[in-house]
């Protein structure tokens, strides 16, 4: 019984330790290493520009569905305009950062793990070391910096299209006056909601890069190992996002309570 319980726990602690070592090396690389601007801009294009379609579509339909479900209930109470405030706060504090991060975990995180894992099993990572190039400087740090730059912009797009689509649903499908809808959004949304979205986005982006790059650097056993690392990168990233989102929600709502100061 102790073996059954203890072995997974020790494996989990070991995994966290490896992630911690990678985080330390990445921070040292960013602070002391050489800044590779070309690689960073390439990753900004890959993470930010090429992720826009999936982020925009996901954000827009998430806002539209949330507005529709809210209006089905609020219309019975004569509170249709309140749905706009609900969608705005929910998209900024919760759905915008979370949905965007989950999409990036599937699209970008898996790609990072696959690319780095392929380099690992084909000994390209060892070739970098033989040429005096640290793999963390070359493979991980540019991706992390690019994620920090691209993530806030992607979250902003997701939130903007979510709120915009909810307005269209409310005004066109349910006949809510757009002026009342926009007024409720302005009243119940403030800077604290934007700050929460940015904090969550930064943490989520950090988790995606660290988990995915670690899986890529840990790949073994050829193509089979790369496939497994890619799958684990996506699954572990998504799980870590959901767990951290819960604790961040509790903490940030203590620091920035909903509705205070409006």
Write a structural description.
This protein has helices at residues 2-32, 37-47, 52-77, 82-121, 124-130, 135-173, 178-188, 191-217, 222-255. The chain has one domain (48-253). The protein contains 9 helices and no strands. It is mainly α and 262 residues long.
What count of structural domains?
1
Helix fraction, binned, reads over 70%
Number of helical elements? 9
How many angstroms separate the termini?
55 Å
Instruction: Note the overall shape.
Output: elongated
Mean pLDDT: 90
Outline the low-pLDDT stretches: none
Structural class: mainly alpha
Give the helix/strand layout.
Layout: H1 2-32, H2 37-47, H3 52-77, H4 82-121, H5 124-130, H6 135-173, H7 178-188, H8 191-217, H9 222-255
Helix pairs in contact: 1-6, 2-6, 3-4, 3-6, 4-6, 4-7, 4-8, 4-9, 6-8, 8-9
Features:
mainly alpha; 262 residues
Q: Short description, anyone?
A:
It is built from nine helices and no strands. With 262 residues, it is mainly alpha-helical. It has one domain (48-253).
